[in-house]
Amino acid sequence: MSDSTWRNPLYLWDVEGAEEAIPANPHRDPQEVWTKTRQSKTPMLPVGRLRYYYKWPGHGGALWSRLRYWPTRRRVLEIRGEYNPKTLRREKTIVDKRPIWWALGLFAFMLGPLVMPGAYQNTLLAAGATFSIYAAINLCWMLILGTAGIYSLASYAVVGAAAFGVSWLSINLGLPWWLLPFAGAVIGLVFGVIIAIPAIRLDGFYYALLTIGLNELCRVYTLQSKQFGSSTGGLYGADTYIPQDWSSFDQSLLAYYACFVVLLLALALYRIVDGRRLGRILKMAPEKREAFAEATGVDYRRARVWVFVISSVGLGFIGGFYAAHYRGVSFSIFGFDTVLLGLAMLVIGGIGRAEGAVVGTAIVIFLDKVMISTGPLRLVLIGAIMLGVVLFLKGGLFGVKAQFRSWRDKKKSERRSMRSEKGGEMLPEEATETKNKDLLYWRRYDKMQRDFLKTLVTQEIIEEHRKQPLGQHSEPLERLLLYFRRAPQGDKYAITVVEPFKAYRIVAMSGQRGVAPRIVEDKIYASQNEAYHGVFMRRIQDLLES
Known about the structure:
Layout: E1 5-7, E2 21-23, H1 30-38, E3 78-84, E4 89-96, H2 98-110, H3 112-115, H4 121-147, H5 155-173, H6 180-199, H7 205-224, E5 234-236, H8 248-275, H9 277-284, H10 290-295, H11 300-326, E6 328-330, H12 336-349, H13 354-370, H14 377-392, H15 400-418, H16 428-433, H17 438-454, H18 459-467, H19 475-485, E7 493-499, E8 503-508, E9 518-519, H20 528-545
Antiparallel strand pairs: 1-2, 3-4, 5-6, 7-8, 8-9
Helix pairs in contact: 1-17, 4-8, 4-11, 4-13, 5-6, 5-7, 5-11, 6-11, 8-11, 9-11, 12-13, 12-14
């Protein structure tokens, strides 16, 4: 006989119905199933990321000094001390690396003229100066849109009004160039107070309509006014800081660095307003939470008006510098296309972020000023980029990282929810909430045992049980029956007598004292052995479906 045949020891004793040999399943080492089941069936990917920056050791028992932006409470570098469980030592890590990127970017911009190709030097210097001016305007505008949450489209109206006002003062009253930015700041203050009054009562879409109407009103007034150059297309002839006897390259270089200084001043203003009390108050009362802010004692309306007025002063200062830089101003500064380009800069970079305003301005200025040879196609490209950002990105270019992390966490959750096994039958979320950890190992062992028992279920085993439900069985069938008998009382199958020696029915035990078993099926079995086999088939079905 082959090794896969089971010899019945009762046959030698002439027991009635005992067969000499019964075919059995080939022996399979349980260690095989154990090893295979313990392996995770979920594809595992490398976790974590490489560190491209230095992790310096901790400070020990002493405190280290934290440098802050004066006069704000923001630290220059957000450094956090932490414990490394792998190296068993204290370490310092930089939480927010944006100041490093700011320093590198501004330093590269400052050294830009040294590496510009000679053929495009004048074009790039002019584009860099224009970029600095518009970036400074957008930083002040970002304070209004992002920090204050006021949907104002009159930022270029304030800049244009200040530029026209100081140009007229310089031409008619001989105001020197170094006073033009300060005179523009005064004009911006007046305009800011006037425009801020409706912001107390209006909000959202209605205030945006009001400010865009104000922008158009300024354009129409200057366009029809003889005093502001209706016949010449603008007001020109203001005093400038650029010496006229210098060479073209020296003039462009001076203008480049002068505009860069204005950009630095706008960045400082943004940090002071957004990082101090006004910015913190408005961050406590974001949109749609004004009632909560008022209940906690935050006067957010007053804070919004203050931010609007301060930003208008900054816009007026930039308008005065604008007139000193270009020796005047044209009507195009009030144009709707200028407002849309400025809005595109903010949307592409990301509203609510200073770096978004600067990088968005760099992208639009590069396409609009450097790639001017492409003609109207460059405007189509700007519109396509803006449309793509609006459709696919939530927070502009600088919101990609947070959006990617959110998408990655969502996919992780989806994979965890679809995963039903990883060495056991308990999901990771369920395992962390289970207090009795012995239950985890019991479920894992039970799963391995079921995986092994599934391999023993064959037609020969089923036929063997049908012929002889009770008595001695082959080794594979005995393993199955022992597992079924060890099942807990809850929902455990049993047979009940409908009529003695004539009718039997399968029921399921409740597992609770005093609660009657429930009837599983309406089928009536004629004999006890048939009922036992029916119970066996139900247990086999549950095992294969588990």
